[in-house]
Amino acid sequence: MSRGLRPWAERLAEQELASGTVVGDAVFLSPEYRVDPGLSRYTRSFAFRAHPFETRRNYATDLTLWLEFLWRRSKGWREATSRDLDDFEFWRRLAPQNPVRVGGSKRNRERAAITGLYRWAVREGLVRVSPTAGRQAAGRARDARPSNVHWLTPRTWKLWADIGLRGRTADGGPVHGWAGRLEDRNTVFVELLTTSGLRRQEAASLLTFEVPVQRLAGGRYCHGTVASESTRAKPLTDLLHAGAGGRRDR
Predict the structure, then answer these.
(1) For helices 154-164 and 183-196, what crossing angle results, to 10°?
(2) Which of 114, 155, 183, 214 has the maximal Cβ count within 10 Å?
(3) Is the pTM of the predicted complex or chain greater than 0.85?
């Protein structure tokens, strides 16, 4: 580290505290390695921090795409117009030249992320008119699906686990040259997800002593809790029912 940067780095924690920055705050860095003060204010605002962690991470990714699109037009986010938003959404969803077009659900989430930024910016006086003004409800994609669920029979699920996680053939025999060192770990983790209904982040946050073992009275399910910071639930408490065919109640 250069001598010029050392004093600044030594006071980094103090400066973060003074600016109100906390662990987990998103920071947007331009291609010129500059940080926009307005965007940093937004990620430190209650409007952004009130979202669950996973939503903040997804919105930060969506806003990055929007900022990159504007950058290629030599525009800052405060200069964006409704025409820019139309062009961005056309590119994301319909442009033949785009090899990774998105569906309605993803487009709606991106619109929500962009709308949240500009709603806050208008309230703070950073922009006069939002490019999303008057368009949120009418502009929702009609082909959006709340989920993309695929059902497997128990037999198909076992076959998928044997082939994909355990390195077996369709006939159940070992695959020559299979070197899956972590197959036991991967199989146990996937089985936890499928029998509890937990999200990946929720299951990955569990410590061994937090995995429930006490069965509910008269039932086949176990009862336990999930750390609130790993969930997307509101209020931030999840009840876990783990077992064959288990489910999670909010």
Answers:
(1) 150
(2) 114
(3) no
